[in-house]
């Protein structure tokens, strides 16, 4: 039957959509006021819509309903969501929350132990994390603490020496701990005894 109303039917309210108010998505037409997430009713646009068959969602609700499930599949880095998806018609937890937990006891101190195992910098005594760790003398150091104990010069693997748990540049090490006498330790002139 021909469409005498002048426009397509809205995918949400099934009323006529005229060209001036039309938004198209996934081959269907919508009124601007009807272009809403089917779960949370948030207004959508071309950058926030996610279509699934004849349904439209915001990206967050689409991910909750059709995305991967389980721990670690949150909405962003480091996210742990407690959203059960009830407003989406999902039944992610079977039974009560206590029955969803593992029956074996977990080691509550596992996290505390991991935090306690973080290496300490010998110079400042603060924790040294992997992103800032430089090894020298068999110990972890902060980059800012990886300096000669005498002159304060920044050290690298090519000019570092260690003695008794402390770091030195090769020049300071030679002057303070190297052999002494003529030709050693920076002595260049010798006074003649007459």
How would you characterize this protein structure?
There is one protein chain. With 194 residues, the chain is an alpha+beta fold. Among the domains are: 22-66, Cysteine Rich Protein (Ribbon); 133-177, Cysteine Rich Protein. Helices cover 12% and strands 21% of the residues. It has 3 helices and 12 strands; from the N terminus they run E-E-E-E-E-E-H-H-E-E-E-E-E-E-H. The strands form 6 sheets. The protein has a two-stranded antiparallel ribbon with strand order 1-2. It has a two-stranded antiparallel ribbon with strand order 3-4. Its main location: nucleus. Pfam families: LIM. InterPro entries: Znf_LIM (IPR001781). This is CSRP3 protein.
Keywords, please?
two-stranded antiparallel ribbon, about 190 residues, 12 strands, Cysteine Rich Protein, alpha+beta
Number of helices: 3
Q: Give the percentage of residues in beta strands.
A: 15-25%
Task: Kindly identify the CATH topology of the domain at 22-66.
Answer: Cysteine Rich Protein
Widest sheet: strand order?
A: 1-2
Organism: Indicator maculatus (spotted honeyguide)
GO biological process, one term: muscle tissue development
Subcellular location: Nucleus
Domain LIM zinc-binding: 8-68, 119-179
């Amino acid at each position: 039957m021909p469409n005498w109303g002048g426009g397509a039917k809205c995918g949400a309210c099934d009323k006529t959509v005229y060209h001036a108010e039309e938004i198209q998505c996934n081959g269907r037409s919508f009124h601007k006021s009807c272009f809403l997430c089917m779960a949370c009713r948030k207004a959508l646009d071309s950058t926030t819509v996610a279509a699934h068959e004849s349904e439209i969602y915001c990206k967050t609700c689409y991910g909750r309903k059709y995305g991967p499930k389980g721990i670690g599949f949150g909405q962003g880095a480091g996210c742990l969501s407690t959203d059960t998806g009830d407003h989406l018609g999902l039944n992610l937890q079977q039974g009560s929350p206590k029955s969803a937990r593992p029956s074996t006891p977990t080691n509550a101190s596992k996290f505390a132990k991991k935090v306690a195992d973080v290496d300490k910098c010998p110079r400042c005594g603060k924790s040294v994390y992997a992103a800032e760790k430089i090894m020298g003398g068999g110990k972890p150091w902060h980059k800012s603490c990886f300096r000669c104990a005498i002159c304060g010069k920044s050290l690298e693997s090519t000019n570092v020496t260690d003695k008794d748990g402390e770091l030195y540049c090769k020049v300071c090490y030679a002057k303070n701990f190297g052999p002494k006498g003529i030709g050693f330790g920076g002595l260049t002139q010798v006074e003649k005894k007459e």
